[in-house]
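Appendix B, example 12.
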Amino acid sequence: MKIHALTTGHVRVKHSFLFASEGMRRQLDLFLPGPFSEPLPIHVWAIEHESRLLLVDTGETASARNVPFARMEVEPAQELPFALAAAGLDAADVTEVVLTHHHGDHVDGLVHVRAPVSIGEAELGFIGQPFPKLMRRALRQPLPDGFAPSPLAFGDGPFGAFAASHRLSADGRIVAVPTPGHTPGHLSVICVDDQERHVMLAGDVTDSLEQLKALRADAIGPDPAVHRATLEVVLEHCRHHPTIFLPSHDPDSAARLAAGETVAA
């Protein structure tokens, strides 16, 4: 198995995005004036295994619009085909795409892929609800043309600390697990690498390893209690399995993958 960290540009987010307030200010602060972070990577993960090339998310495109709490920094030459080529891969060879959730910096790169796409069943249901539709219109963040992923259900029983899972490979070394919080149907993908470590491709479960250890819910998710419960499950999994934790916007994720650095118990 080989796992590649691909970078499709960067994003700057408000400090209040990374360090959310409590109560009513949690989401309100996203729309009020405030400082922005340094550029954070927009990672995509490519997995070579069993003669397949599976992508976890597809990254952002240069046409992405800024929103009040996020400023995109993506050049055309940083989009998915170029990121794949930099790793010696080709978009035409992608056999499957699994989306952690529906936000643009994770799905907009689908315009470059012709492979089957899946997303969590709960996330697909959430996307169609009135409030998410309203927010996409208000923030001018439409889903990409032709967005029609298949629903992914967690019917394969427990995996480590996770109560449910979905096998993505015949040998069971690649699985999807539910990680709700940032969105109600968010999922993560865990790969058991050749050294028996669990490589958790965590999407936006957190923005950093520090946030995971702090058990800090973010400013985006609708229910902070659900988010914190997910973080507790992730940490419990890490206590029992050597886990390399890789959020998509953590500046240290690619280095942790390269070094095989696991979460300290």
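The two ends are 25 Å apart (CA to CA). DSSP finds nine helices and twelve strands in the chain.
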